[in-house]
Amino acid sequence: MNKLFTKVGVVVFTVASLLFTVASPAQTPAKNYAIVIHGGAGFINEGNTSKEKRAAYTQALNSALEAGYSVLENGGSAVDAVVAAIKIMEDNPLFNAGKGSVLTADGKVEMDASVMDGKSLRAGAVAGLTTIKNPVTAARFVMDSSQHVFMIGSGAEEFARKMQCESVNPEYFITPERRKSFERLRQQKDNATAILEPVVTNPEFKFGTVGAVALDKFGNLAAATSTGGMSNKKFGRVGDVAVIGAGTYANNKTCAISCTGWGEFFIRLVMAKTVSDKMEYQQLSLEDASNEMIHRVLPGMGGNGGLIGIDKNGNVVMPFCTEGMFRAFKKSSGEKQVLMF
Ligand code: ASP
């Protein structure tokens, strides 16, 4: 009798361990993968964007999305995918990142960028860059090839050049459109008050930052963000984009987040990490956590903007409390959207 029990026990144990092996996520790479991108939030609506402009943004978002997606499709990492998507938007003058960045009060371009790997919780960030063509690649080198997380100004540029990041003349970043918009903004404000007074109803006021979050085939999450910051910024101002936990955060346990909006509020709210914390410690879904922050807490404090997020199961969110936000996602299930308002 005892022997029979032992035999049954062995069979049950073997079947159970077989089932466990098949179901264990460590052994089975996640099949679903996805990427989400944004091209900034702000005063964007059907009335103030021409048909041609909308078509140009759709095309630009689409090519960045597809570039990131194909990295994932080919088995690349979430970090590679978000960097690939962002580089394309940095090179496109439509967005406020890399070429096409907004101008500071001194009429210059100063860019911030960051990246975070949700698997290792490693991160890299740079601020106040003036000559590095793709700031997101500099942030990535900080993450991968330095012992630091955050580098600024001339030191960050020196490091990026040592890492073979392409550098360009600062004039490269300034487009005629940004120059005109800068002149118009300057006429509306005198020098003393023109620090940071974003008014969401001002047609000049679009955030335009770019960001990407992704889940790769192996269940790893990553986030990256890049920006020229806020128009007319002064005194070496750095926004949320370069602050890990504020504008960018990724953790395989919860989600990956990239933000866009009035950076001072995102820093004070530690926006991206707070969404992750709400998931980890309050057991909220990504949707509930990000809606609470973007639709209740952020406007409640007087700020505005939006974020994109993806969780470890591939659920995607893109909430914003401005008129519009350039955004898009593509999932391995075949679902895809490119949206503005
Ligand atoms: N968050 C950015 C900043 O404050 C601006 C943006 O999202 O466009 O620098």
Distance between the termini: 72 Å
* Structural class by secondary-structure content: alpha+beta
**Which segments are poorly predicted (pLDDT under 50) over 5 or more consecutive residues?**
1-27, 191-195
Q: For the largest sheet, list the strands in their spatial order.
A: 4-3-2-6-5-1-11-12
Q: Using the alpha-carbon principal axes, give the shape.
A: globular
The profile of the biggest β sheet is:
8 strands, mixed
For the residues shown, what is the average pLDDT?
89
Bound molecules: aspartic acid
Q: Tell me how many strands there are.
A: 12
- Give the SSE string: HEHHEEHEHHEEEEHHHEEEE
Rg value: 22 Å
Number of discrete helical segments: 9
Helical coverage, percent range: 25-40%
Beta-strand proportion: 15-25%
What report would you give on this structure?
By secondary structure, this protein is of the alpha+beta class. It has 9 helices and 12 strands. It has helices spanning about 1-25, 50-75, 80-90, 135-145, 155-160, 175-190, 265-270, 270-280, 285-300; strands spanning about 35-40, 110-115, 120-130, 150, 210-215, 220-225, 250, 255-260, 305-310, 315, 325-330, 335-340. A hairpin with a 4-residue loop joins strand 9 (about 305-310) and strand 10. Helix 2 packs antiparallel against helix 3 (about 80-90) and helix 8 (about 270-280) crosses helix 9 (about 285-300). The radius of gyration is 22 Å and the shape is globular. About 50% of the residues are buried. Aspartic acid binds near residues 96 and 260.
